[in-house]
Design a protein that fits this description.
By secondary structure, this protein is mainly β. The protein contains one helix and five strands; from the N terminus they run αβββββ.
């Protein structure tokens, strides 16, 4: 399932480096994990459990950076499957 273009635009913004960000989008809970440059690298989207984990889908972002090592040349979000609490 591809990501909503509006969600992709939200995820393309630079966030706090090396952080785990809790957010929401269109009624779904998000957990975003960023890299050292503040780019979103991993996304968990679904419903948040009482312990803070997400039950839903996991996505991983493949980034191609410019020569400066910070500017995004291209990126692609890849669905990695369901995540659930065992």
């Amino acid at each position: 399932m591809p990501l909503n273009p509006k969600l992709e635009a939200k995820l393309s913004k630079v966030l706090e480096p090396n952080a785990t960000v809790q957010d929401s989008f269109s009624g779904k809970d998000l957990t975003i994990i960023t890299d050292a440059n503040g780019h979103a690298k991993t996304l968990f989207i679904g419903k948040r459990n009482p312990d803070g984990s997400i039950q839903g889908e996991r996505y991983v972002r493949r980034l191609v950076l410019e020569a400066d090592g910070k500017t995004v040349k291209s990126s692609h979000w890849e669905a990695k499957g369901k995540v659930s609490r065992e």
